[in-house]
Amino acid sequence: MVQLCVNGARTSADGAVVPLSPEAVADSVAEAVAAGATDVHVHPKTPCGRDTLSPRVLAATLEAIRARVPASVPVGVTTGAWAEPGPAARVARIRSWTALPDHASVNWHEPGAEEVAAALIERGVAVEAGIWSGTEGAALFRRSPLGPRVLRVLAEVTDPDPAAARDSAHALLARLGMAHGRPVLLHGEEGRAWPVLRLAGRLGLATRIGLEDTLRLPDGGRAASNAELVTAGTREWAAARRGHD
């Protein structure tokens, strides 16, 4: 599986290539799915470009995407603490959603992660457990009674040194252990994105790519679209997998 991470917490300051409005997001997602993405992770945005868990914005974003892509492509959203400060406020937002994503990511190191994940499960929304390197997320997740109920683990390498990305990824996977038997999606950001994606290929793990994780192609050139990143990502993942085999 190659998941598309559409836009992340990026803003217009990152360039016009980053889709922000529901219509721009839907166009970008449709192109990336045609290029090979099989799953979608998106950050719904307010009109001023800020991440939000607002039911109105979420519904508009999901409606726009689902009008453009097959129903077989799952669409997920963030529940990052920056989008709605305070665990209680995030839970309240989730309970107020009028349209539901197929899944939502929960960063396990953030305060209130268990409550947020429980609220999603109660509403029938699958949970992606976001486990960041350099945090207590892995240890907290291993102890979580909700661990066996999540859809998958998003193992995210945050080490700022690209040269150390692979070692950090191996260390993170070791800390996760059996991860409650749940599938693991391994990815990195910025300079770590491509080394970690190739490692995921070698290990046969799912991965993700998109403008949330990097604005650059493997050769360092600026990406023109999410579709271009997905095309490069599927190629790099497959080449790494063949090399392993």
Automatic annotation (TrEMBL):
Domain of life assignment:
Bacteria
- Signal peptide positions (record): none
PANTHER family (UniProt xref): 3-KETO-5-AMINOHEXANOATE CLEAVAGE ENZYME-RELATED, 3-KETO-5-AMINOHEXANOATE CLEAVAGE PROTEIN
What is the protein name stated in its UniProt record?
A: 3-keto-5-aminohexanoate cleavage protein
Species of provenance = Streptomyces rubrogriseus
